[in-house]
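hey m, so remember when u said the tokens were messed up on ur end? i reran from scratch. heres the input so u can diff it against urs
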Amino acid sequence: METVILAVVIAVVVLGVLGGLLVGSRRKKPLPPAPPTPPDITAPPAEPHVGEEAEAPRDEERRTIEEVGLPEGSAPVAVEEPPVVEAPPIEIPEPTAGRLVRLRARLSRSQNALGKGLLTLLSREHLDDETWEEVEDTLLTADVGVQPTQELVERLRERVKVLGTRTPAELRGLLREELLTLVGTGMDRTLRTEPEARKPGIVMVVGVNGTGKTTTTGKLARVLVADGRTVVLGAADTFRAAAADQLQTWGERVGAYTVRGPEGGDPASVAFDAVKEGKEMGYDVVLIDTAGRLHTKTGLMDELGKVKRVVEKHAPLDEVLLVLDATTGQNGLVQARVFAEVVDITGIVLTKLDGTAKGGIVVAVQRELGVPVKLVGLGEGADDLAPFEPEAFVDALIGD
């Protein structure tokens, strides 16, 4: 009996051990994961169409590129050519001979107040001291200057006293003679642009900001071309934006060649190259437009002297023209004096003489510098720059 019980216990223990081993082996070997479920792929919504294309797209037979036939002969390909920029037509400037005479009416409209005022005063029956003081005031107001005014009044008093009775025609002739003497008929007013035994003539244009130097240089080119000269323009005003463009436009109108440099570059270098080009091409005249500068700025004035020295490495300057705004009056004389100390001024160009300018500035500036007025500007037109003619100028002052 005891033997049977022992056998049963042993059997139970063996079965327990075998069961534990079976469970442990199952834990060590996990079951393989289930295969992933494929995602549901839905077709994208069709792009909306309008009209006949609103129907659902149909499957069409597609061909490869080898199966597509090419048309016989290829169509010509149109090549657009760049637009041709036509050069502006060359203008023929108005002849300079007698130009101031033709512009006399325009000049007289703004200038003959001086002449009319003097004639009115001198026509009085009794010319007392008070009347002569009014004559002096009239001349001073016209920017004639103190010294020239005193000289003119003294001569007029003597001649009127000798003349006695005075008819309007006699007074006009008397006043014309004295004004011509004051303006000066014996000064050489020709532009020296034809030096002997060499080419080109070299002209430098200087002046204060705002006097119209670049425009005057362009108009002067027209004057020279009208007289049959070939011209090179040197755009040495490298500080003012568009100054070179402005000068080149003036040159293109009359067929003048323009030499320019980079904006802000050395003006002396541009001036040097302009003269060099003029010599190599055999042109008649080189006009050099310099930058406008304040007469009170020492550094700028010294630079102007440098431009002059560099140019003269080629040849001496034939003309140095100072451009003055005639409306500035006596202030223009201060500017002229400073420029004359830096460069040797050989001639004056008076611009804006058709506006509020007083005709007496011609006399004053000539006395101040000892150089003649050679050109006057009488308007905004391209051909309104005229060689100064004393007779025509005085006739415009006193009117008809």
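this time it looks ok to me. The two ends are 174 Å apart (CA to CA). if urs says something different then somethings off w ur setup not the seq
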